[in-house]
Amino acid sequence: MLRKWVILGLVLLVVGYTLVGCCRSEATSEPASTPLVAGKITFAGSTTLQPLAHELGKAFNERYPSVGLDIAAGGSVVGIQAVRDGTVDIGMASRALKPEEAEGIEQHQVAVDVIAVVVHASNPVEDLPLEQLRAIYLGEITNWREVGGEDQPIVAVVRGKNSGTRGAFDEIVLEKQEPAAPEMYTAVTAGDMAVTVSEHAGAIGYVGFGNLEPDLKMVSVDGSLPSEKTARDGSYPLVRPLLFLTGPLTQPLAHTFIEFALGDEGQRIVEHSGWVPVR
Question: What is the b/e burial string over 131-167, where b = at least 16 CB atoms within 10 angstroms of the residue's CB?
C-alpha cells in the first residue's frame, strides 16, 4: 500500500513539473522576429538619377544592412532596355517613356526634376525666351550679341543621345528636332556638362536641378527661374519626371526599395538632394 502511494506521488511530481515548465516557456517566449531582408538589387540607367539612387541607398542600407546595392548608370535608354531584358532589377529614367518603350514596364515616379539652363559665370545674359533658346540649339542664333550679350560665338553643349536629360530637352525645347548649332560639344554626363560650361566663356548647356554646381550661372526661361515652386505652378517650362522602372523579371526585393523611396524618409531625401518630391 505504501509503495502505491510513493509511486503515485512521484507521478504527480513529474506531471506538475512538466506543467510548470510549459507555462513558464509560454510566458517567456520571445515574439516572432521580423523576417530578414537580404539580397542584392541591381540598377542601371540615367546618370541624372544615379546620385539620388545612391543617397536613397545609403538610408535604405541603414534600415536593411543585409541588402547589397549595385547602382550603375549608362543613360535612360540603357536603363529601359536593361529592365526589359531582366539584366537589372531597377531601371532609371529621367524622362517620360515613349509608348513603345513603356510596354511591359511599370513606372514609379520618385521625383520631379527641372532642367536648368546654364551659362558661364561671366555671361551677362539673364533671361532667354523659349523661342530664343530653341533658335540657339537649332543654329539660328549663333552669337551672344543677338540675345543681349557680348560679341562672342555661342558654344552649345548637349548631352549624348542615351541621356534622359537630352531626351527631355529635345522634346520640350527643340520640339523633337535635332540640335544643329555650328559650334557644339557633347557632354557624356551631367558632371561633364557642368565642367564644359564652366570652362568655356561662350558656352550654354543644361543640367538637372539636382546637378547644379556653384560655378554655373542659371538663366531664366520666359522670365522664370527653375525652383520647386515654379515646377509645381507650371511657370517654368523645362520640367520632367524621374522614374524607377521595374519589369516582369524584377525580384520582389526591388519593390521594397521603391516603397522606401516613395515613403516619408525617402521623399525627404529627394527634397534634401535638390529634387522636387512627388509626395
Answer: ebbbbbbbeebeebeebebeeeebbbbbbeebbbbbb
- Return the pLDDT at 190: 87
Domains of the chain, each with CATH number or no CATH: 39-111+242-277 (3.40.190.10), 114-239 (3.40.190.10)
Q: What is the pLDDT of residues 147-179, one digit of tens each?
A: 999 999 999 999 998 888 898 899 899 998 999
CA-based nearest residue to 71, from 33, 40, 42: 42
Helices (H), 48-138: 50-63, 76-85, 99-102, 130-137
CA-closest candidate to residue 202, choices 115, 143, 160: 143
